[in-house]
# Entry
Amino acid sequence: MSQRRETVEHPFGTMKARIGATHFLTKTLPKVATEMALSVLAYNLTRVMNIVGIRPLIVAFVA
# Structure
């Protein structure tokens, strides 16, 4: 349980703090799933930009 907290809870806390995703703005499961997917995509892109850098990321998108 403690290992799960270390690996899983950090992204959700970061999304809540940075993106302001404290609650879902939509209703129904498909819309909530889409909203969550977009939040996770934004979180992952932010991580990639911090780890790899912006220029290599742009090159990867264009190529």
Summary: The helical segments are 2-19, 29-51, 54-62. The chain has one domain: 2-62. The mean pLDDT is 85.
